[in-house]
């Protein structure tokens, strides 16, 4: 509850706003669905990182990922990363839907997956695996 | 004042969608940060929640549109192979022809080759992390709604991932701007 009074210098009251106490009902849901979504995002990022590095290391993988000639191997890397992300989400969501798991565990897993994704897509890293 | 089809798509990809993404990010982060029962009324929280859901969903959709147009429309033009005659070199081509092949143009000069080897190689990959993570954040906000008001861990997790998505898009956007300056698509 809050009351706001607005007055001019000199003391003349010009406005008054009063808020009354209000209630809001919130039904708490388990964190499983959130964990499924964010871990799946981490898996998608990691798949992208792994494919980016493998593409550099192997010409066979490079050719396999070249789904579209104009886009090159980026077409396969991104397509398979997105498919992997959606599949991971589709698998994890029903498993975790009505459950709560440890926040720390979920966040550490997601953090590691995302770091793996960022590192795998960093040129100075994946160039270390470049084939001759 | 005419824009070619390539320039129009490049502008849509980098400037229009990029600006929308930035706006949605700024609004979404501010919305998540201020989603506290001690700061606003129930009516205010409800109004913010609606705006937040629209903002984060827009951010995720715009992120997908940006990477899809960038990868499948703009990028093929960037990496078009130049018509080099047998036994010739890229630098033998007239300058006005060279300018139409940004990737080859960047690689032809040791002073600019890192814009492709490092800049474009990082940009084209890291950008895709943004829509993937932004979609997870959008799901959390839409699915949990008002629970974000009282569940600090949920809200902070959403905010942290929001920043991760923005960082990925920010790296890609910044590198894209520099690459476009060094070798614009024409």
Description:
- The complex is a heterodimer of chains A (132) and B (186).
- Chain A contains five helices and two strands.
- Chain A has helices at residues 32-57, 59-65, 73-96, 103-120, 123-126; strands at 2-7, 13-19.
- In chain A, β1 and β2 form a beta hairpin.
- In chain A, α1 crosses α2, α1 packs antiparallel against α3 (73-96) and α2 (59-65) packs across α3 (73-96).
- Chain A is elongated.
- Chain B has eight helices and no strands.
- Chain B is elongated.
- Chain A binds chain B through residues 19, 22-24, 26-29, 31, 33-34, 37-38, 40-41, 44-45, 48-49, 52, 68, 70-72, 74-75, 77-78, 81-82, 85, 103, 107, 114, 117-118, 121-124, and chain B through 37, 41-43, 45-46, 67, 71-72, 75-76, 79, 117-118, 121-122, 124-126, 128-129, 132-133, 135-136, 139-140, 143-144, 146-147, 149-151, 153-154, 157, 161, 164, 168.
């Amino acid at each position: 509850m809050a009351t706001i009074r607005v007055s001019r210098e000199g003391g003349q009251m010009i406005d008054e706003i009063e808020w009354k106490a209000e209630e809001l009902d919130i039904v708490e849901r388990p964190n499983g669905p959130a964990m499924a979504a964010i871990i799946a995002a981490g898996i998608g990022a990691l798949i992208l990182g792994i494919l980016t590095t493998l593409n550099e290391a192997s010409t066979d993988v490079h050719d396999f990922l070249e789904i579209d000639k104009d886009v090159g191997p980026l077409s396969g890397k991104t397509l398979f990363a997105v498919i992997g992300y959606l599949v991971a989400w589709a698998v994890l969501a029903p498993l975790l839907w009505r459950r709560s798991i440890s926040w720390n565990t979920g966040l550490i897993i997601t953090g590691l997956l995302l770091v793996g994704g960022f590192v795998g897509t960093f040129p100075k890293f994946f160039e270390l695996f470049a084939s001759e | 004042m005419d824009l070619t089809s390539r320039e129009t798509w490049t502008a849509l990809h980098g400037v229009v969608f990029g600006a929308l993404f930035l706006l949605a990010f700024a609004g979404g982060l501010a919305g998540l940060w201020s989603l506290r029962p001690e700061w606003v009324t129930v009516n205010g929280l409800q109004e913010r929640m609606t705006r937040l859901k629209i903002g984060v969903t827009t951010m995720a959709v715009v992120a997908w549109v940006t990477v899809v147009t960038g990868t499948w429309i703009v990028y093929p033009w960037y990496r078009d192979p130049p018509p080099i005659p047998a036994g010739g070199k890229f630098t033998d081509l007239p300058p006005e022809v060279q300018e139409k092949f940004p990737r080859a143009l960047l690689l032809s000069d040791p002073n600019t080759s890192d814009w492709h080897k490092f800049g474009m190689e990082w940009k084209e990959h890291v950008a895709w992390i943004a829509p993937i993570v932004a979609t997870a954040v959008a799901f959390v906000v839409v699915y949990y709604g008002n629970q974000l008001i009282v569940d600090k861990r949920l809200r902070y997790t959403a905010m942290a991932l929001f920043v991760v998505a923005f960082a990925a898009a920010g790296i890609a956007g910044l590198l894209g701007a520099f690459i476009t300056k060094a070798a614009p698509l024409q």
